[in-house]
What does this fold into?
Amino acid sequence: GVLKAGAAFVPIDPDYPDQRIEYILQDSGAKLLLKQEGISVPDSYTGEVILLDGSLTILSLPLDENDEENPETAVT
It folds into this structure.
């Protein structure tokens, strides 16, 4: 699914030191960060953050009626 979206997955252990997490986010050019409740996001991160658990998550949002079942992608 990640490749189909034209993206890359970079796992980050929340137990890493803060400086290492900041470096990974900056070096990878991450524009989107998936996180769990209770895990902090570095102040220097300017991309979008999506919460995967808790009271208001991406899963609680309604689906877009324009979503396609299997969208085409230019990724090879």
